[in-house]
## 1
Amino acid sequence: MKLNIVFMGTPDFAVPTLKSLYETENVTLVITQPNKPKGRGYELKPTAVKEYALCVNIPVIQPNTLKNDEPVNIIKEQNPDVIVVAAYGKILPESVLCIPKFGCINIHASLLPAYRGAAPINRVIMNGDKFGGITIMYMEKGLDTGDIILQKPINIPETMTAGEYHDIMSEIGANAITEVMTQIKNGTVKRTKQDDSKATYAAKIEKSESMIDFNKPAEQVANHIRGLSPFPGAFTCINGKRYKLFNATVTEGKGEPGCILSASCGCIEIACAEGSIKITEIQPECCKRMSVQAYLIGHKL
């Protein structure tokens, strides 16, 4: 038996889950965010989820809101057993939450109740956590407060970036949702209430957070850079020019915070309040990301 699924998602993170559901269940409809302007020409581009859905001939709708009758009625027409949500980007109203037979299920990239909210992937890395994971949960009115169905923890290496963590969580989430669909069909789903007293929040990344503060210990600075890599990218200003920094490792150099201690042998060493960091990749403003070694061939810092 295959479940009738309405899938809701938008970015790259959601595509492996949609692919997994397409291959194992009956996905009758995909709902994703409207096309948005991208690139230098600001051309309207479809979401990653829409691109995949069209490739496999799944119908797609892109409502500006789910609070109108039209999208709600379209969802009802699908008679879904489950609505699966992965990084859709909008809160579901109660008129949608009550539609599917077995409920609305969300994939969240943290071990709830830790890191409820918009940016768990970035915050886990920025905070230097040693472990993280994915949660499959039932959705309700609250922000990531629903009952937990399944969790998959992983260890986080100290050099892992948010981009690398994103890709791992995306694949783990896709595998986990397949497991949950099997539980639904077998009637073996177990619900665990979240302990709200242990809840923490992963607020959306603000533009102001991208600027690196070297008046902090080197470990915190390195975590900050990794947590914003590759997007939106952490930056500093050197000789009046803005540079995004990538691939930060902690070292033991000493100097005035923000001072360049060395720029050779394929890396830049910058002093922090305690210790220093070494950077091996850099992105000058209005330029592509490149190795420090390549940049130093024709430039000085």
## 2
Amino acid sequence: MEEKELELRLKSLEDLQRRILACNLCPRLREFDVRVGLNPPRRFRGQAYWSRPVPSLGDPLAPIVVVGMAPAPHGGNRTGRMFTGDQSGNNFFRALYEAGLANKPVSVSRDDGLRVCNVYITAVLHCAPPDNRPLPQEVANCSRYLEEEVRLLPNARVFVTLGRLAFDVLTRILGVRCEFRHGLECKLPDGRWLIASYHPSPRNVNTGTLTIEGLRRVFERAKELAGVSGGCQ
């Protein structure tokens, strides 16, 4: 890729994040995210909630792209960072850390010093949905941003989806047909890869549907397919 095209793509990705932050396409989600911040549980009282769309996280030049479902009401919607401030985030970053793709095993706040290496993290939705159940139109509204990200990310070689919704949306965007199962490796026509995983939700981890070790193996396989070696200092 020529330097000029790379610069244009990176600028377009920056513009995309600004549009995500200013998005009001889903009034139900925006109202819910603000209301949650005004009526937090006792353990979070006194904290200023982000209560806006949560931007993507990581290096836009990374070869590994992780796609989640949506921020959690008291996680990303509170902290303003993907997979931050809730147990799903802790499970996710523990596995990412053990795979050498993050410099810390927990994600607490935007200023906690956490860094990811060789990874770009995004989601189908950038706002938290009530009861973790977005409406079909809300998925359609927000997945247009994911489609644009996938097109613009210059070095993406491996996509990792967390959960069925992320898998279904991304396979549609990529134009491939693969049956969802944890650990699935689907080679795309252009030579890139998609790996499917269960979501690192507390329910999945507590029931043994997904283990931290199992998710770590997914990320280690993503590193192998992406040609990434070493850890994250």
## 3
Amino acid sequence: MTRPLTRPLTPRTLKTGALTAATAAVAVALTSCSSGTTTGPQLAFTDEAAATAVVDDPTAASVAASEAAFTRAEAVFLSPPEQSEELAEASAEARMPLLLTGDDDALREELDRLGTETVIVAQDAPAPAAAGEREVIEVDPEARADAMGLPDLDADDDDAPAVAMIDPGEHHPAAAAVAATVRAAGGEVVEVPGGDPRVSGDSVAAAERSPDTSVVAVGASFGSTDQLEERMSLAASTTAELPGGGQLAFPGRRMVALYGSPGTAALGALGEQDVDAAIQRASELAEQYEPHSEEPVIPAFEIIATIASSEPGPDGDYTSEIDPEQLRPWVEAAQDEGVYVVLDLQPGQVDFLTQAQRYEDLLKEPNVGLALDPEWRLQEGQRHMEQIGSVDAAEINEVSGWLAELTARNHLPQKTLILHQFSTAMITDRESIDTSHEELAITLHADGHGTPQLKTETWDVLRQDLPEGIWMAWKNFYDEDTPVFTPEQTYDVDPRPWFVSYQ
């Protein structure tokens, strides 16, 4: 049972009915002058933005949140990190910070800065050494805040300009405490899956406001403080968001795409109908995946923009390039309906960069990414269908460097760069692929077809020694798969694919 509050009387809590209002005011003023007690609210919030901080140590993270949100707190919750979730809700409701034990020196310094007189702990919790001679109140952590017998303190009227960024996938031991402290001061808590503030519309909005707020990010996924500040700056300067919100292709969304070329049914499902019907079909496909995904599922097109040809053609390069302006109506219609577009290249004897540059104007659209299909990349003297084509990492890196620069120069959201593969020989020196470009989500598209066993074996082989920072994609074939995976079966693949296409 929570023991009754025996909080010492201070000039701000002393009330005597025999005093007139004027006499009481004089008494308080005199006592305050003699005792050195600070006037103002007993829970005072910051009113100016401080520097951004990325913090991993639990105690340091809780202190950073307190510094960002509070200038004074005469009562403070204190907890070991592993028990902090039990007190987080009460801390936020009572508008008091929640600090975490671990570094006693840091805690003492913060309690002194806050002018803390009372420390609140869970029943049976170890006595906090950092509390010193302060009053310690034990409370039932399962009780509501208004039933805990907490000090009745005056709080600031204005909220603190504080923001807590939390990566929900990291399950950081300080996440609950940091969020509670910022909420207690009227600040904002933003979930940032993966630790990149470009991931969602909410986190982008928080990044845009960051010059006027104190941002505390919890955990290693955010990288260094410099890295977080750079990403927030990118978020603020980017002119558009992707379908579904945010500026990162993944992990803020998954995509389900129709693959093919407009007006050519033989090349895939996308070409079996006009653009309006294709949008409806892709949207219906994406909806089938929604129940099986924690992330929003966005419809997409993967449009074959350059088509492998059995004949050399007028340029002698065994590829037929669709005029970019013929594809623009598809890109614009998709943009209007929240559909992402990937332009797929089958280059024949042309290098991938040369073909990609032909579609530069379309790639300047915020909802357009790029796919490279090495199966159709020929060397001089080779012909399609006589062997499987291939590309080396150096050529891929030329494309990624150009595409990243194009994206940055035009202040565009992150673009997908999809690499198709079903055989290890299709991409040589794969370990040398440059995955460092913040502007790109490089994605390996496993194109295996046939029985579930064959598709899974291809998937597993392609994932071996995959460079860090590459996302995985899956393809379902309407005609070649026996049977075609259902949406549930597709998302049961481990790891769950971020991009799924239908051919």
## 4
Amino acid sequence: MRVLVVENYENPSLGQVGAAISEVGGEIDLCKPYLGDALPGDSRDHHALVVLGGGQNALADQAYPYFPALLDLIRDFEARDRAVLGICLGSQLIARAFGGHNRIGGSTEFGWQEVSLTEEASEDGVLNELPERFPIFQWHDDTFSMPPDAVRLAASSVTGNQAFRIGRATYGFQFHFEADRPMVRQWSESFAELIARKQPGWAGRLEEEMAQHGSQADAAGLTIARAWVATI
């Protein structure tokens, strides 16, 4: 199994998705087009695609001129029935690729927040083992409208479109289910100044928040990661 991972920003991590791929002996090909790596022209050499998050918005083609080619690549994987996963910015790019409208700003969430599954999620192979509500880590300002023919799978009180599926195995997740407690701690240290501007007092609350929500969020995230890997 070969999984193409597209990194869009410095200091991301596959987190629990990487762990789930490793559990089944998968091979990860990391591509960093924001640093000049060339994207593959199509999906023929890979069984699945993961598009990670980033601080830019999903319409930033001028600053990130590879975005249109990435949209084409997403569509090619889906057309060949190969699994696709987009997280945060990645979900916004998937939505754009299939006709959703990106909405920049006005949907800010940060930290562990509760998400609720839709009725459709109870019949979805990636989400049907999860509780109806659970905390999960969020870090975003933007959102999107649901693409035509997409199935909405999760929502929060702030952001109505938190997860969706297109076709058999193309999934977009606005929330960072890949981010377990060590990953959140690492982000909190690496982006301390940015987070302090966004969420004053976060550094002082981190341990309490982690103790309250981290275990349940980690369990939900790993369940999602393993179930998505099983679609490959």
